[in-house]
Amino acid sequence: MIRNHLLLAGSLALTLTSGSVLASITPQDISKLGSELTPLGADRQGNADGTIPGWGESASSEAVSADKPLFEITAANLDQYRDNLSVGQIALFERYPETFRMPVYPSQRTANYPERIYDNTLKAASNAKLLNGGNGFKGAYDAYPFPLPDNGLEALWNHIVRYRGEYIKRPTVEATVERSGSYTYARSEDEILFNYNQPDGSEADLENILFYYLSKNDDGSAQLIHETQDQSAEPRLAWGYLPGIRRVRRAPILSYDTPVGGGGLRTADDTDLYNGAPDLYDWTLKGKKEVYIPYNNQQLLKETPEYDDIFMAGHINPDFTRYELHRVWVVEGKLKDDKRHIYSRRTLYLDEDSWGAAIVDQYDGRDQLWKVSIAYLANYEDVPTTWTTWDVFHDLQSRRYHVQGLINKGNTAIDFPEVMPKKKHFTPASLRRMGRR
């Protein structure tokens, strides 16, 4: 039996605007964390028919890798599974009925995190508060600030600051695939220091910086970003190194709907499926729903197959994907009347166990579905964390798509070094040195 649970809080969806009064979290609510709820606020129990297991009941990583597909969703049997798909997924089946399919595997709730993240999240549950109309927060560090979300903004912040380790190095490839299936690609080497998740730090040490990002491209250019926690108070700080003039310059508009990749297929705030200031939208927490989302795609962390085998007209080769039935929080953002963005509406589907966005449906100015972003989530058990492998950004109108996260040939996907650089490594001077190498 196909189940579709859209569990609204009371009878109304929960929304937050700058004038809203926040509901208080009671000690009774907090006591549920770690008991009937997981330490991060997901439902501990599985669903009624057992197609979603209880938390902690999943198989070992070896067993997960040996799983075989239970069935495939195709355009031919779409109606049987429609209630457990996003609007964007349904549109992909309708746009590419002959080739798009979803191999569905047994659901495995493999997401888990260091104990300190659980401990810090329990503290944050009673201390974290939204600031400045929800454009920032305080009272949380190295934690999911709102494991018991009252509204869409709190759920969104859990995605923005979700745990992805403390420091990563990532040699990666981005590819743009044209309507015909032809493609171009570019390489880069990225470093991210998650200032928010330094084990020996504190909230007082943040200085409004969530993370530092440094990237060098194969054309010799380089970028540096200081991601601020409250971007309405202090916008994102960004610099770029231009090899033609051998100079570092400020990049003041590297945010919101600024095009950043794939010939306009990805905006700055599409990266990570959503990032940056949330102030352009009114965010509503619609409830929970059971959806087939990409999960446990550990096979994509191995050496990337030949690109000719991955890229197809319209979408990546389904043979490289794995979908599972999971509960997700559904969060909708509607563009405010006095704001401007190329997307009038965005619907995010956040995995309840990791708070990571697995799917985002994006709508144009006519409120017509335009783009569909998909994160192929995987379990990085050595960290441990659940995070993306490949992010794929589909333009349904042009029938083109953009892929982030492909592995450079001969490299591993992401390295989580134990030895981390100092913060001074992430300065414009360092960017200049990196660009000249």
What key phrases describe this protein's structure?
alpha+beta; 437 residues; single chain
Notes on the protein architecture:
It contains 8 helices and 20 strands. It is an alpha+beta fold. The strands form 4 sheets. It has a 14-stranded antiparallel beta sheet, sandwiched between helices. The chain is globular and about 55 Å long.
Reconstruct the topology from this structure.
Layout: E1 14-16, H1 27-30, H2 61-65, E2 71-73, H3 78-81, H4 87-95, E3 102-104, H5 115-127, E4 129-131, E5 136-138, H6 152-160, E6 167-177, E7 183-193, E8 209-217, E9 222-228, E10 237-242, E11 247-250, E12 259-261, E13 266-267, E14 281-294, H7 307-310, E15 323-335, E16 345-351, E17 357-363, E18 369-380, E19 385-395, E20 400-407, H8 428-436
Could you say which overall geometry the principal axes of the C-alpha atoms support?
globular
What level of helicity do the residues show? 10-25%
Which class of secondary structure composition applies to the elements? alpha+beta
Q: Kindly report how far apart the N and C termini lie.
A: 58 Å
| Biggest pleated-sheet summary | 14 strands, antiparallel
Low-confidence stretches at least 5 residues in length (pLDDT < 50)?
1-13, 15-22
Mean pLDDT reading: 91
Strand content: 25-35%
- DSSP strand count: 20
**Strand adjacency order, main sheet:** 1-14-15-16-17-18-19-20-6-7-8-9-10-11
The radius of gyration is 21 Å
Q: Please give the count of helices.
A: 8
Q: What is the element string, with H for helices and E for strands? A: EHHEHHEHEEHEEEEEEEEEHEEEEEEH
